[in-house]
Write a structure and sequence with these properties.
It is a single chain. By secondary structure, the protein is α+β, with helices and mostly antiparallel strands. The protein has helices at about 5-20, 30-50, 85-100, 105-110, 120-130, 150-155, 155-160, 165-175, 185-200, 205-215, 220-235, 240-255, 275-290, 290-300, 310-320, 345-365, 405-410, 420-425; strands spanning about 25-30, 370, 375-380, 430, 440-445, 450-455, 465-470, 480-485, 490-500, 500-510, 515-525, 530-540, 550-555. The chain has 18 helices and 13 strands. β2 and β3 form a beta hairpin. It starts with a helix and ends with a strand.
Length: about 550
């Protein structure tokens, strides 16, 4: 779909919502109830991903045995380091800073500057953006071989949580943020999820919620076919979710025609396509029958992306229930002040940002905010969903030919060329042995510090090394001053060498770095009057989130 077509589609769906509002068909929702349900939606995501996390992609093309399901523990609700949750907060932040109508190109710049590691469509889309391929082409199949993957589907919860009863707003947000990394069924998966959330503010019946999401995607798409099949098989086998799972498996996993754009090939057990994982979301909602535990567990036991799928189904269901009515086991241990990784948000700040955007969405769709008996209420126009034009990854439309301008590229500061990043960050230093994991480069902000360099070892045995030939002045006390940090879920070993001699070595992790950062000072006075080769080594400690974070590197003489 060309850029002009997308603009027309977004304008049309919003206009459709406004037109329906003019006909006086409205639903009302108190702002207090909106807050309660919206909060529950985020908590449902945290519950689903926390419960399913240990199972992710360990069962591919197989049902997870009941006795292999982890037990729920209330503290599992505190999922602040899950990419299944914090990535979508980048989109929330873009709208918070630039408004609900943030241009798609600005959304692309913000996503390009994100600091977290990514995979599949997200990774490919972000790399495209950083190389100058602007949206919507960053998600087009010509440039993105993962365009049908699950990525926007995972991240689309926000689009319904800020659009109560407004499916066309959720669709329009998919046409903006989903296009950064996905196309076709990959975008439709997010619009399906967003549509279910939007309806869950008013509807209790899981089937009607699933059907509301289905109405947000083109009826002729393979994605829509998948969800229609799940609904039909649920009606045929209402007490046997594993039978429906098997029907999904036969058609959407084992039949090559339904895996025409699988990024791993049509015969692989691993299947990260949006549509089959969306089937598992729907199976959980339908067979879970509004039971929080059953909904999450069934979506999880379907396998494949078995933490993302229960996060979606749990979030939708919890929205329909409301935070105040959730079982205590899902709220009693919640740390509301915990900060979501790579974001500016704790729970209260996130909820405030979403409410701010929801207010904008209601007004934009032709609704209004009124006060009745001292209580604020959303007056929300009823509008039938208007899906955008049909497209499929294996028969894509033309590219838009969209490229970032030189001025826009200057705003993309998350440099992917590590040598170029280092030249900007610490002139005179060189880099060797830097691996590609965790997306090394320069970050505008990371863990509360600005202008942070990220490096990563090439392997467990090959460290990433920053080096410089430095002249140490005579007659002065000279130190090498470093500010270094670590990823929330990992640590690494820092070694400092001078002419091969090791002057410092220690782990940089939660036990040694307060608030994620540590000041390291190494005395170089012994080399006064000499030229010395300095080496800063980012060495693996266990091969889990081994990135080295560098807030500053300075040689200080006094």
């Amino acid at each position: 779909m060309q850029r002009s077509m997308i603009a027309r589609a977004v304008s049309f769906v919003v206009a459709a919502a406004a037109t329906a509002g003019a006909a006086d068909a409205v639903r009302t929702l108190s702002v207090a109830e909106y807050r309660d349900k919206m909060k529950a939606g985020w908590i449902g995501q945290m519950a689903g991903v926390g419960w399913g996390g240990p199972t992710e992609f360990k069962w591919k093309g197989k049902v997870i045995p009941a006795d292999a399901m982890p037990a729920w523990k209330p503290e599992l609700i505190n999922q602040f380091n899950q990419d299944d949750i914090y990535v979508e907060m980048t989109f929330v932040r873009s709208m918070e800073l630039h408004g609900l109508d943030v241009p798609i190109r600005q959304a692309g710049i913000d996503f390009a500057n994100s600091a977290y590691p990514l995979w599949h469509a997200n990774h490919a889309g972000r790399q495209n953006l950083r190389s100058g391929i602007a949206p919507p082409d960053s998600g087009h199949p010509r440039f993105n071989t993962h365009a049908d993957d699950i990525d926007y589907q995972i991240e689309a919860d926000f689009s319904g949580l800020i659009a109560p009863g407004l499916p066309n707003i959720a669709i329009a947000l998919g046409e903006k943020f989903g296009r950064l990394m996905n196309y076709g069924d990959g975008v439709y998966g997010g619009q399906f999820v967003g549509g279910m959330y939007a309806e869950a503010f008013f509807e209790q019946d899981p089937l009607k919620i699933v059907q509301a999401g289905l109405a947000c995607v083109p009826a002729g798409s393979m994605f829509a076919e998948t969800i229609r099949d799940v609904c039909a098989w649920w009606k045929a086998y209402p007490d046997d979710w594993e039978k429906t799972w098997e029907m999904v498996e036969q058609k959407y996993q084992r039949t090559k025609a339904y895996r025409r754009f699988s990024c791993t090939g049509p015969e692989a057990d691993f299947n990260i396509d949006a549509k089959i994982n969306a089937a598992y979301i729907a199976i959980g909602l339908l067979y879970g029958n509004r039971d929080p535990d059953a909904t999450i567990v069934i979506s999880c036991r379907c396998g494949q992306d078995s933490d993302c799928n229960p996060a979606n189904s749990g979030g939708v269901l919890f929205t329909s229930i409301g935070f105040s009515k959730l079982p205590a086991r899902f709220s009693s241990a919640l740390n509301e002040e915990g900060v979501f990784s790579h974001t500016a948000y704790n729970v209260p700040k996130l909820l405030a940002a979403c409410e701010k955007l929801a207010r904008q969405a209601v007004v934009k769709a032709g609704g209004k905010i009124v006060v009745e008996n001292g209580e604020e209420r959303f007056v929300i126009p009823v509008a039938a969903p208007v899906p955008t034009a049909l497209e499929q990854c294996w028969e894509p439309g033309p590219i838009a030919g969209s490229r970032f301008t030189a001025e826009e590229m200057e705003k993309i500061t998350a440099v992917t060329d590590i040598a170029r990043a280092l030249k900007t960050f610490a002139p005179g230093w060189k880099v060797a042995g830097c691996g590609a994991d965790m997306d090394p480069g320069l970050r505008p902000e990371l863990r509360g510090r600005k202008n942070v360099l990220v490096t990563h070892p090439q392997s467990t045995t090959v460290a990433c090394t920053l080096s410089q030939e430095a002249r140490i002045p005579a007659g002065k006390k000279t130190t090498l001053a470093l500010q270094v940090g670590h990823h929330e879920q990992g640590d690494w070993v820092l070694a400092v060498k001078a002419d091969g001699a090791e002057l410092f070595k220690d782990t940089i992790g939660k036990d040694t770095a307060k608030d994620g950062w540590r000041a390291v000072s190494v005395d170089l006075s012994a080399y006064a009057g000499k030229t010395v080769r300095l080496e800063l080594v980012n060495q693996a400690s266990g091969w889990a989130y081994e990135a080295g974070y560098w807030a500053s590197i300075a040689i200080v003489s006094e």
